From TrEMBL:
Coiled coil regions in record: none
UniProt protein name: TetR family transcriptional regulator
Ranges annotated as spanning the membrane: none
PROSITE patterns in the cross-refs: HTH_TETR_2
Keyword DNA-binding attributed: yes
InterPro entries xrefs: Homeodomain-like_sf, HTH-type_TetR-like_transc_reg, HTH_TetR, MT1864/Rv1816-like_C, Tet_transcr_reg_TetR-rel_C_sf
GO molecular function: DNA-binding transcription factor activity; transcription cis-regulatory region binding
The entry's keywords: DNA-binding, Transcription, Transcription regulation
Biological classification of the source: Bacteria, Pseudomonadati, Pseudomonadota, Alphaproteobacteria, Rhodobacterales
Organism field: Thioclava dalianensis
PANTHER family: HTH-TYPE TRANSCRIPTIONAL REGULATOR BETI (PTHR30055:SF234), HTH-TYPE TRANSCRIPTIONAL REGULATOR RUTR (PTHR30055)
HTH tetR-type domain location: 10-70
Keyword DNA-binding attributed: yes
Length: 207
């Protein structure tokens, strides 16, 4: 059977996503150009806009691929870090730092990309981001079984934000950022501090 119109469109979308992913990895999201993407994908400039609504939607699909890989890395670390909740959190923190360092431009694109004012992020892409919080719920619920689900989600968001902030400042080379040589150690120290705080909070609640 020959290719149908839908199959050809799917193949085009795949080539464009792969080309955009490569362009972002090499030049950063700020250096992404539609013509460079379509040239690499082997299609006309106009073909991009038949496959995607615009360049922003193409970037969302690249970010979705990055989130899928990041989620897999965190889940794998969670599985390998079986033991105490603290060990699981440390394993995921190491995996997060490793992924960010190995995929710097694509990782930064996840958080730097902004849709035009008035354009809502599609629900499917919001769900893609959920993995960053969901993987933390299990270990945190073991540390703080007294917390309700809503409070656990909030604690997971806070935990993620704390680690992410340290990594982002370091990778951006900010003067207040942690030196790259000490990034793993400082993230581990941060997670240990948060873990001990959660353990003390649970002990006080149990009194």
């Amino acid at each position: 059977m020959g290719n149908t119109r839908d199959e050809k469109r799917a193949a085009l979308r795949s080539r464009l996503i792969e080309a955009a992913e490569d362009q972002i990895a090499r030049h950063g999201i700020g250096g992404l150009k539609a013509r460079a993407v379509t040239t690499q994908a082997g299609c006309a400039l106009g073909a991009l806009y038949t496959a995607f609504e615009d360049l922003d939607m193409l970037i969302l699909h690249v970010n979705a691929r990055t989130l899928e890989r990041l989620g897999s890395a965190l889940k794998s670390a969670l599985g390998e870090g079986q033991g105490t909740p603290a060990q699981a959190l440390q394993a995921m923190a190491r995996a997060y730092v490793d992924f960010a360092c190995a995929n710097r431009a694509l990782w930064i694109a996840l958080f730097e990309h902004r849709l035009p004012e008035g354009v809502e992020t599609p629900d499917w892409h919001k769900q893609d981001h959920a993995v960053l919080i969901e993987v933390l719920i299990g270990p945190l619920s073991q540390l703080r079984p007294d917390l309700a689900q809503e409070a656990l989600v909030l604690r997971a968001r806070t935990t993620f934000a704390a680690v992410h902030g340290v990594v982002l400042l370091a990778l951006q080379g900010r003067f207040v950022g942690v030196p790259m040589a000490q990034l793993h150690a400082e993230v581990a120290a941060l997670v240990e501090t948060m873990t001990r705080g959660s353990e003390r909070g649970q002990a006080e609640t149990a009194r």
